[in-house]
Structures are given as C-alpha cells and as structure tokens.
Amino acid sequence: xxxxxxxxxxxxxxxxxxxxxxxxxxxxxxxxxxxxxxxxxxxxxxxxxxxxxxxxxxxxxxxxxxxxxxxxxxxxxxxxxxxxxxxxxxxxxxxxxxxxxxxxxxxxxxxxxxxxxxxxxxxxxxxxxxxxxxxxxxxxxxxxxxxxxxxxxxxxxxxxxxxxxxxxxxxxxxxxxxxxxxxxxxxxxxxxxxxxxxxxxxxxxxxxxxxxxxxxxxxxxxxxxxxxxxxxxxxxxxxxxxxxxxxxxxxxxxxxxxxxxxxxxxxxxxxxxxxxxxxxxxxxxxxxxxxxxxxxxxxxxxxxxxxxxxxxxxxxxxxxxxxxxxxxxxxxxx
Length: 334
Description:
The chain is an alpha/beta fold. It has 9 helices and 12 strands. It has helices spanning about 20-25, 90-105, 125-130, 140-145, 160-165, 230-245, 260-280, 285-300, 310-320; strands at about 45-50, 55-60, 70-75, 80-85, 110, 135, 170-175, 175-185, 185-190, 200-205, 210, 250. The strands form 2 sheets. Strands 1-2-3-4-5-6-7 form a 7-stranded mixed sheet. Strands 8-9-10-11-12 form a 5-stranded mixed sheet, with no helix packed on it. The longest helix is centred in the C-terminal third of the chain and has 23 residues, at about 260-280.
C-alpha cells in the first residue's frame, strides 16, 4: 500500500465500511497526484546493499509524483539481473532500471511480481520493454486487471480504470514455484506461500541469504488485510523463520530490512489480532462492537507501528474472516 496519502497519520480510523476505509487509506491515487510544476521529485526509493549482488529498494514516501509506494529489489548475478516488484508508478520503475544500469550492463532477464496489488506491479512495462520476462504465481495474471479496481471504490474514474486495464501482465506463471537462473550456478528460488492474497511469492537468494518477502512481511508496520487469510499467513511466517533462520528479510513495507526476530514480531501482531477479535466475538460482540473493543487493544500494543490507520479495517476484515463472511478473490478456473 502507498504511504503517499497519509497512511499512518490517522490515529483513530473512521468507522466506515472496509471498502471506504481502504479507499480513504489511498491505495492508488498516485496517478493523479502532484501535477503542478512546483512539485519536487525526490528519489522514490533508497538502495540498501545486502551483499553478493542483492539490493533492496526501500520506499521513500515523500517522493511525488514518482511514487514507489512499496519496497522492491533486485539481484545482479553473473549473467543477468532479476528484479523483485516494480512499484506503484512507471516513473519509479524507470528510476530503478536506471539505478541497475549504473551498477551493471547485464540484461534484466526476469521480473517477479510478489502478488497482484498495484503498488507492486504498475511498473512492469518499463522492464518488459527492456527485454525482461515477467513472472508471478498463477493467480496474479487474472487478478491484476480485475481485483485492483476495487481499491478505487465505486467512484472509479475512466482514467483510473484505463490505468489498471493497461497493467503489463506476467508472461510466465507457476502454481507452486520456479527457479530463475541469473547465472549457471545462481538460481533464484521463487516459492508460492499463502496468506496475504492467495497469490504470493517469496524470492530466496541463497548466495546473499536474502528473502524478498513482498507483502507477506511488513516490518513494524500494520498490514493491509483486505485479501488476507490470517491463519494461513501465520503458518507461512512460521515456515519463513524456520526455513531461513539467519536470512535478511526484505519487507513489502517498512523502512528497514529485517531479520527473523522482525518476522516473528509481525507474526505475533497477526496472532494478537486474531485472538483479540476471537475473544470479542466469544463475548457476544457484534461486528461494530468488535471494532470498538479491539481497537484500543491494538493501539496499546501496536500504536507506534507505521500505517496505524490500517488497524480499523484490519479488525473489521479479521472479524469477517473469523465469522466466515469474508469475500476473497476467486481463483480462476484452469
């Protein structure tokens, strides 16, 4: 989700529908923001060297209109480059391509979309035009131009619809995973893991011991749960820290690259949320009252985390999930 529209600045969320709350959080208005000539354009991301050719690109939320809107990254191998996610604007993607070109003349062979959300895929075409093959889990391709429309709400404009309709779709998809080689002995492991959307991929680079998590990991940041299955998500996070205990974890959102303790902290937030909502339901609280009961608890324990305005929608969405009322993106028929 984009930090450009005041995410984290509203300490007490409005008690509205989940859809309106998400829209007010401003998932995708970047295309029309900051059009005046006076608007300055700072670097949309900062690069963090993770060693062995792996780099994290950390979102700079102050950058407008060249909005990143999420974290991304890339790995430079002996023969080629693999890019992880392409931000929320083509302008930011172009700047990442330029940053790669400053470091190597090797071709960008692959782009991996960690999931379908628009803040991670809007710059795909920049890399496709440079010759890259875009890869993602099977569900990402059909969802990219359909499910992303919901983030604009019922008053979506023709310009916004056209923007989503023109997203560059993955060229190659997979069910459970793949290995993308950027050298004879340098294979990037792409691994489907459930939780955030139902189409999430992590990318593991063994040489640098880095896991690019996409939005399966938010570092000390409250998460968007609109498509989430939190039970599966908790299990996924347990697998991550078990399988990669000493790795560096690049979050989809958050100002720092994390370690296993940070992943566990985020897992504990999801567990805390599920338990608090479950207790409120067991005490007979209606959905409206669940929000009133649980929000102070989340504020007390996680009020200093970024994107706190996701607390209210997250409580409502978890309430719907535990009541088996939550509508998730439908997996397409094969």
